[in-house]
Design goal:
Elements: H1 3-12, E1 17-22, H2 26-34, E2 41-47, H3 51-60, H4 65-69, E3 72-74, H5 77-82, E4 88-91, H6 96-108, E5 112-115, H7 118-135, E6 139-141, H8 146-159, E7 163-171, H9 185-188, H10 193-198, H11 203-210, H12 213-226, H13 245-248, E8 262-267, E9 284-289, H14 293-301, E10 312-317, H15 327-336, E11 348-354, E12 363-365, E13 372-378, H16 379-385, E14 394-397, H17 420-431
Parallel strand pairs: 1-2, 1-4, 2-3, 4-5, 5-6, 7-8
Antiparallel strand pairs: 7-9, 9-10, 11-13, 12-14
Helix pairs in contact: 1-15, 6-7, 6-17, 7-12, 7-17, 8-12
Length: 435
Amino acid sequence: MNLHRLLAARVEAGKPVRVGLIGAGKFGSMFLAQVPTSPGIVVTAIADLAPDRARAACARVGWDAARIAATRFTDDAARMVAADDVEVVVEATGHAPAGLDHAAAAIAAGKHVVMVNVEADVLAGPLLARRAARAGVVYSLAYGDQPALIAEQVDWARSCGFTVLAAGKGTKYLPEYHASTPATVWPYYGLTEEQARAGGMNPQMFNSFLDGTKSGIEMAAVANATGLTPAPDGLAFPPCGTSDLAEMLRPGNRGVLHHAGQVEVVSSLHRDGSAVAGDLRWGVYVVFEAPGDYTARCFAEYGVPTDASGRVSALYRPFHLIGLELNVSILSAALRGEPTGAPTGFRGDVVATAKRGLRAGETLDGEGGACVWGKLMPAADSLRLGGLPIGLANHVPLVRDVPAGAPVTWADVRIDPADPAYRTRREMEAAFAPA
């Protein structure tokens, strides 16, 4: 990599990379913490629904008074995106409809977009990436978040000439988690409600990580960016430690995969709740295969861990640093004109799935809520059944009953056809529908 060298040249020329951040929550704050020690990166403006809260976040992560005073704080994201002193827009709100609006505005204004908001990316990222390419700007997944790190590993393996059998991440999973709600989430994390409240932890957000929704969203983003695809039944969450990745994540009757070239999430828990040895709960992985006997022999000669055949191996990273690594995406976009992962097609989708029997007249409460969780499925299957994307399953009323475990469809809800996010999603579906 040569990003730091390229950045040094910008510093010498007196032309820092100028960033506008939308959303100063946890991810945004972690990025902001690195700015004072990143010469050549200047955050010119921060847009947040609560500008004073964003200003306080800057102070909390170590910004001095002079840096804070030199930064514009606003609740008007559209105006910030259009400003001449913003070169790269970082969308870190976590709100899918807002993310679509912000990214579209940035692309129209000729700005690069780093999409931390993976919910928005899965909702209509392929369309946004196509628009960005036509506008001559970069649309990128966010380095430090797991989808971009997985995309990097897949690119590494393919660039080396290996066949990628599987790629994904680890998480804590048990089947019962799919029914978890914000009211039941904290015991699964070993916390009391009082401890969570004292830590400022949002129960619906943490429930999204637990109930399988976030895993589905992230693997859909990986599928759309790499060409890997989901299994027909979505994620299986097999219990698997790092030493077993190569042996277990093989296709067909040799392992747990449905097919070669699959996205999958491995669990840090066995189904009885006991811990998996050498778990990958916070990390990412790629499983790859030697193309021939000579390469397999090289694996053995250089101590590469493999499956029993000696031909399949895995590379993993045990952790990710979230917003602390975001500079990589910002600099790649601004200095090289390249994304750190971006959608190239619509291959994976995440459909709202009933956590319990839902009744007509109920209003869905979105990702991590009490009504639905987001299930990964092949995009072609989602389009065929008319699945309601999890990113639009919030504040919409049901017009008919949905059984527990069943996908919610467009026909099951009443949604405003004039809603901008709905229209963008429908445009994306039409643009990427199978021929």
